[in-house]
Amino acid sequence: MQLRSDALPARLAKGVDRLYTLHGDEPLQAQEAGDAIRAAARASGCSERRVFSVSGAHFDWSGVLGEAQALSLFAERRLIEIRIPSGKPGKDGGEALQQYCRQLPDDVVTLVVLPRLDWQQTKSAWFAALDAAGPTIRCDVPDRSTLAGWLGQRLARQGQAVAPGDEGQQLLAWFAERIEGNLLAAQQELSKLALLHGPGPLTLEQVQASVQDLARYDTTQLADAVWLAQPARLRRVLAGLKAEGEAVVRVHWALAEEMRQMRAARAALDDGQPLPMALKSARVWSARERVFERALPRLTAPALLRLIAAAQVCDGIAKGLPRPDWPADPWDAVERWLLMAVDALRGDGDRSAQARQPLALRG
Fold first, then answer.
1. What is the pTM of this model?
2. Same domain? 203 vs 223
3. What is the CATH classification number for the domain harbouring 202?
4. Cα separation of 125 and 262, whole Å?
5. What does the alpha-carbon distance between residue 193 and residue 159 come to, in Å, rounded to a whole number?
6. Residues 223, 180: one domain?
7. Residues 194, 71 share a domain
8. What residues make up the domain containing 49?
9. Residue 231 and residue 148 in one domain
10. d(C-alpha 271, C-alpha 289), whole Å
11. Residue 92 contacts residue 61 (beta carbons within 8 Å)
12. What is the pLDDT of residues 138-182, one digit of tens each?
């Protein structure tokens, strides 16, 4: 049973389920959701807590199964946590989890904690059994389109508010840019605003004077900026990755892989396949489908071939093989290549000289 993390408090207020599953790689959401479940379990009478950490393929699952069925000598109810840091319980573990879900006792609340799962793991029989046995909460970083709303909700929770209309939206958008991809830092900045200014309205000047630039980026955010044709954000994310010490080869590989997937999906479309089948044949899954669905109809096969060729040029530059008509710095070469993709999405083959300047020259 899929449940949004922001819907968990209302669900817990109605009563405690026998099993919860948390999965995702956003630490603040995972911590808050886990703490809320533990607090609700204690309030329902779970005064005993037992934690099992599954490490390696040789973990003894009989102890987990036995603990769930054992009678408690000191408490009416118990909380059992099953932590699987790798997200891979193995064959025996998968079977044990399915058996566990079939035999859920009434006097036990179970919390299963998992990392971010890939598409295949979420389609496994053991995960399906967990999902059918109780709420499944995915703990991921809010995407950029919802991050401002998340901040607004957090401010309201601590008695603070922003101005209505464009002024408030400008404040939240500025705030979101500074903490994107780093919710733990975002919560620290929110707490600081509460201490500095107390309940009441906030101005953009107050927030700008307090909030540091703590955004953390990954290659998925960079790909989103490319396929959504957002050149300003593309440059900001690329500069952030460079400043964080990310390897340019890794950044290039991730974007080149998505470009190859885009080309494969375009070929499938041109062969007459419907868009969902074309994406499936190109092995595009989950959240990436939405981004590809928006970008793919705007890209032609010749444009994608040119982008693949440009990716090969960038690969050579990153490996020490310069091209006289390309920037010598690998990061600048990658930027030029990705801006070519934005041009293709916009149907604009030419870009001004200013836009082609290296990152270092624009400050």
1. 0.69
2. no
3. 1.10.8.60
4. 30
5. 11
6. no
7. no
8. 2-138
9. no
10. 19
11. yes
12. 998 888 778 999 999 999 999 999 999 999 999 999 999 888 888
